[in-house]
């Protein structure tokens, strides 16, 4: 059987397994095993087991559970509440200030937790009820939180960037820094659309009372408590800044920086918020272990899947066929973006990266695209998948937070933010320096 036909059969089998609810890791591993047995026979079982364990024995993967632990410590503490209160005080006087402050809180919390679902849940639990109480449209209240939550996989530290770095053998520190400017650019686009949406919808109330006397009274009453809340958040921000400095300054490896960051965030959560009880700490460890095992199992099975595709010459054949197409490289990039967008509709970001990196990276390099720039473009595509059906993880998190908001309103409120992300990709194509300027400045 020729590699292209075999590749189509493998892809259809994988889609069929996931369509009937098979966990992604088991679907990847099962299809890989069957393909290898078909092509090589029973002796291939030995290589299957060796590949499964060898590929995740890389010390660099230690950074993944450490960053997850760091994010879990932040997400399980009242850090999100304090961050929300502080930004509401300083940004509440802007047009649509409460919604804008929610996006700002999502941006900063994303840097602290590195997780889109955690960001969406932590800020949404406080932000959505408050916005609805003050008269904001349900679509705006749900959409801005769902979109703001997606920034967790772009603004560093990001677990998906770590996985991309290991899969592509690129600098994780440089990947982190490449996501900074695009991440805050997207946050700015989200804020602009939020202000426009609120003005178009009408009927929302200003977050702070209208009269000057009431404004002064409110600020005087709340300023002390909000400043104290900000002071409690600053040590966590300092940890993130220290991690980035250690990475781009060459002081520590990603695994070392992640380990220190996880310890410091856990210690700060215990000391600042007095989480002395066994229950909260046990919850943090349980959530970290569960997510880490899930991600590592997906990575291990995806590595076996990549090995199977390579052994069956599927990867080489597809890459060669695409490379031989006489098309403009931007047309090729457009096709790749559509492919990533569709993949993100159905699969979580981690699975998409580890499954597609072996196929796409040779094509990207052959077309003379920068791998760090492509990492940002890929991540934004996967962010879109978090707020679009049929999977749309953030949409279902918002539904869980506000069950009385219809899924239709949540979806319609989120789609304009998906278009903002598409605009972000277009801007990155026209101005690659948005992703590359800061890493070049700091790391050469």
From TrEMBL:
Predominant location: membrane
Membrane topology: Multi-pass membrane protein
Domain (TRAP C4-dicarboxylate transport system permease DctM subunit) ranges: 13-434
One GO CC annotation: plasma membrane
Domain of life: Bacteria
Record InterPro entries: DctM, TRAP_DctM
Transmembrane segments: 6-38, 59-78, 98-123, 175-196, 229-251, 257-273, 293-315, 373-398, 410-438
Keywords tagged on the record: Cell inner membrane, Cell membrane, Membrane, Transmembrane, Transmembrane helix, Transport
Location of the protein in the cell: Cell inner membrane
One function term, GO molecular function aspect: transmembrane transporter activity
Family annotation (Pfam families): DctM
Family to which this protein belongs: Belongs to the TRAP transporter large permease family.
Task of the protein: Part of the tripartite ATP-independent periplasmic (TRAP) transport system.
Subunit structure: The complex comprises the extracytoplasmic solute receptor protein and the two transmembrane proteins.
Name of the protein this chain belongs to: TRAP transporter large permease protein
Lineage: Bacteria, Pseudomonadati, Pseudomonadota, Gammaproteobacteria, Oceanospirillales
């Amino acid at each position: 059987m020729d590699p292209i036909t075999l590749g189509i059969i493998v892809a259809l089998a994988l889609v069929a397994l996931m369509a009937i609810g098979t966990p992604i890791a088991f679907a990847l591993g099962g299809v890989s095993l069957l393909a290898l047995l078909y092509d090589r026979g029973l002796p291939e079982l030995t290589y299957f087991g060796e590949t499964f364990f060898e590929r995740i024995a890389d010390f660099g993967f230690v950074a993944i559970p450490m960053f997850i632990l760091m994010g879990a410590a932040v997400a399980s503490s009242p850090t999100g509440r304090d961050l929300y209160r502080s930004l509401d005080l300083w940004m509440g006087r802007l047009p649509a200030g409460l919604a804008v402050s929610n996006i700002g809180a999502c941006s900063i919390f994303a840097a602290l937790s590195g997780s889109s679902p955690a960001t969406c849940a932590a800020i949404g639990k406080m932000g959505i009820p408050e916005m609805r109480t003050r008269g904001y449209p349900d679509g705006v209240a749900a959409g801005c939180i769902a979109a703001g939550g997606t920034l967790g996989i772009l603004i560093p530290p990001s677990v998906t960037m770590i996985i991309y770095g290991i899969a592509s053998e690129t600098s994780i520190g440089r990947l982190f820094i490449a996501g900074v400017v695009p991440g805050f650019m997207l946050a700015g686009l989200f804020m602009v659309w939020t202000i426009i949406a609120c003005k178009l919808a009408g009927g929302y109330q200003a977050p702070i009372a209208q009269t000057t006397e009431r404004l002064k009274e409110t600020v005087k009453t709340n300023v002390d408590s909000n400043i104290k809340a900000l002071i409690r958040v600053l040590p966590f921000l300092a940890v993130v800044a220290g991690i980035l400095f250690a990475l781009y300054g060459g002081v520590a490896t990603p695994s070392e920086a992640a380990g220190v960051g996880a310890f410091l965030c856990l210690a700060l959560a215990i000391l600042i918020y007095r989480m002395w009880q066994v229950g909260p700490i046990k919850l943090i460890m349980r959530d970290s272990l569960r997510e880490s095992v899930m991600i590592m199992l997906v990575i291990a099975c995806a590595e076996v899947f990549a090995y199977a595709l390579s052994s069956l010459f599927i990867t080489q054949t597809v890459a060669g066929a695409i490379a031989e197409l006489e098309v403009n490289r931007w047309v090729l990039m457009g096709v790749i973006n559509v492919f990533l967008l569709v993949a993100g509709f159905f699969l979580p970001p981690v699975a998409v990266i580890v499954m597609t990196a072996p196929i796409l990276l040779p094509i990207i390099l052959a077309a003379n695209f920068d791998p760090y720039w492509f990492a940002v473009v890929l991540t934004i595509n996967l962010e879109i998948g978090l707020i679009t059906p049929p999977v749309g993880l953030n949409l279902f998190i918002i539904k869980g937070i506000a069950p009385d908001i219809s899924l239709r309103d949540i979806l319609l409120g989120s789609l304009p933010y998906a278009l903002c992300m598409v605009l972000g990709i277009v801007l990155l194509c026209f101005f690659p320096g948005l992703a590359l300027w800061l890493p070049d400045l700091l790391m050469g």
